[in-house]
Specification:
Oligomer: single chain
Largest sheet: 5 strands, mixed
Number of strands: 5
Helix content: 40-55%
Number of helices: 3
Distance between the termini: 12 Å
Strand order of the largest sheet: 3-2-1-5-4
Structural class: alpha+beta
Number of domains: 2
Strand content: 15-25%
């Protein structure tokens, strides 16, 4: 996971935990002494459902952050999530791309590991030729070099 992706996840996690705290504070303590009307009960159910969804997303992000910490830096000999890869496409153009996780917000220099090009690059080494599908048809590229951008800003 890139440093930017980690920061984004940590920021989202802080926001989710703050929202969860606010929602949890609005739920009744479960005593049931004041049943309220059906609208009150429906509102209570909606807030409980929101709390469940927030808990699920918090657990998902916690898991991703733990997995990234355990995985360590990517292998610099083979393409992996977090690698920077310079590729030469069939038309002769060169591009330096970062391979990001599926949850990372892609930009012009990021290719996600679950995209057609990303899947083709995973595990490849400098000098390897990869084939992948594009909306216009089959594509190919040569891995010219690769490195690690973990910790880069």
């Amino acid at each position: 996971m890139s440093a930017d992706a980690r920061r984004a996840f940590e920021s989202e996690l802080a926001d989710l935990r703050a929202e969860r705290e606010k929602v949890a504070a609005t739920l009744r303590d479960g005593g049931g002494d004041e049943p309220g009307d059906r609208a009150d009960q429906a509102d209570e159910l909606r807030r409980a459902d929101l709390l469940d969804r927030l808990d699920g997303r918090i657990a998902e992000i916690d898991g991703r952050l733990r997995e990234a910490a355990v995985a360590g830096p990517p292998d610099t000999d083979a393409v992996g999530v977090g690698s920077t890869v310079t590729v030469r496409f069939a038309d002769g153009t060169r591009s330096t791309l970062q391979v990001g996780g599926a949850a990372e917000a892609p930009d012009a220099t990021t290719v996600t590991a679950d995209s057609p090009l990303g899947r083709a690059l995973m595990g490849r080494r400098a000098g390897d030729t990869v084939a992948y599908d594009t909306p216009e048809g089959p594509g190919s590229a040569v891995v010219e070099s690769l490195g690690d951008t973990r910790g880069a800003s």
